[in-house]
Amino acid sequence: MALDPLHALQAANRAALPLASAAFGTLLVAGATGALGAELLRRLAGSHRHAHTRVLAREPIRDGVRGVEACLTPPRTSTPIGQWPLTSAHTAIIAFDPPRLYHDRERALWVPEPSDLPELARWLRACGVQTLAIVQPHDQGRLPEALKRGLASLDEQAVVAHGFERVILVRSARKPADAKLANPFERVAAWMLSIVRFMVPSSEQPVRASKVAELVDIALRIAPPGVHVAAPELVWQAAQGDMHAVARAWLQP
Asked: How confident is the model over 113-151, as pLDDT tens digits?
């Protein structure tokens, strides 16, 4: 039977394309809860850039996203994180958005606490994770108390010390502080103009979870080796305009 040259070229092109497992490996998500965690899972698992996506869960779940499976964790009270059975992953995301209790799926998921970070990072590194992204809630009002006090810098240093190839820290979005006006006439004018803030423009509204998830997605794709911290003002700025340009300026200056 004669071989169709077009079919041969198509087969050669398919063979030349890198497999998802070779390029991006397995993604492991700890804290796929809340609006932000759900958006991260939807965006990253739905992109099919990772061969597999696993979420840490306390109970078996059946997720609606194709290719997502549960990685069951032992009870928190009986087994420390450091003694969990190892799994395999190349990239991991730790999200601290609290679960929405009216979502049955989120009740079954494992939710990380800020105090878990050092031990969880150590376990993830033992699982083979090379890239770790730590994402705080997009809404500052949903920050756990430990994060409001500032996730202990020593904890973050301990995470970096585990030897990850890339560590990406994404803070909660916050609008840059207004410049202080020394001139009394400028202050009066600013006060008079503040009345228009009752009509809240889009640039004044809280950053949406989908925007933070998009920033994390871009960072995972273009960040070079090293530690990269997205300050609250940078996260807010990225959500207001050209996210790719802001991300490139942050990660590839």
From this structure: 888 899 999 999 999 999 999 998 866 555 555 555 555
Domain total in the chain: 1
Separation of alpha carbons 226 and 224, rounded Å: 6
The answer to whether position 14 is within a domain reads: no
List the chain residues with pLDDT less than 50.
1-22, 152, 179, 193, 196-204
List, for residues 44-75, the tens digit of each pLDDT value: 987 778 888 999 998 887 655 667 888 999 98
Q: Is 10 contained in some domain?
A: no
Residue 6 within any structural domain of the chain: no
Return the CATH number at 152: 3.40.50.720
> What is the residue range of 24's domain?
19-251
- In a domain? residue 11: no
